[in-house]
Amino acid sequence: MTAGDLAQLCNGSDHVSVNACRIYILGVTQGIAVGIHMAAAKSSGSRPCVPPAISAEELEATLKKRLTVLDSDSQQHDAAGFIGAALAAAFPCRGGKQ
Questions:
Q1: Of 34, 56, 60, whose CA–CA distance to 46 is shortest?
Q2: What predicted TM-score, i.e. pTM, was given to this entire model?
Q3: Which of the four pLDDT bands, split at 50, 70 and 90, describes residue 23?
Q4: Cβ-contact 45, 93 below 8 angstroms
Q5: What is the largest CA-CA distance in the chain?
Q6: pLDDT on residue 98
Q7: More confident: 88 or 43
Q8: What are the residues whose beta carbons fall under 8 Å from the beta carbon of 5, sequence distance 6 or more?
Q9: Which residues contact 43 (CB under 8 A, 6 or more apart)?
Q10: For residue 79, what are the contacts with CB-CB under 8 A and spacing of at least 6?
Q11: HEC states along the chain?
Q12: Mean pLDDT of 53-75
């Protein structure tokens, strides 16, 4: 998504645009927090190395697969942290720093 795409979305007045704008901003903000946490661990085992060519559909399928097996305790965890952990498990970094 470009900044122009986000501006267009966030300038929309329909409820879908308003909600999508808000959720996108929240997701990126939470993602930054998770990224900082992962970087602070300084361990390749705690962060994902998602292939650059992976499609949005593949990412969605990977996450949906893990969401179907959530237990009641896991359902209460931060969604961004869950996604980070799920991606790290699905796409672990191999070898040295990446």
A1: 34
A2: 0.69
A3: very high
A4: yes
A5: 48
A6: 45
A7: 88
A8: none
A9: none
A10: 30
A11: CCHHHHHHHHCCCCHHHHHHHHHHHHHHHHHHHHHHHHHHHCCHHHCECCCCCCCHHHHHHHHHHHHCCCCCCHHHCCHHHHHHHHHHHHCECCCCCC
A12: 89
Is the pLDDT at 97 greater than 60? The verdict is: no
C-alpha distances in Å from residue 1, one per residue of 24, 75, 93? 10, 28, 25
List the structure tokens of 32. 């930054």
* Tokens at 21, concatenated: 């704008």
> What is the percent of the chain with per-residue pLDDT over 90, rounded to a whole number?
45
Of the candidates 49, 42, 44, 9, which has an alpha carbon nearest to the alpha carbon of residue 25? 9
Closest CA to 87 of 58, 63, 55: 63
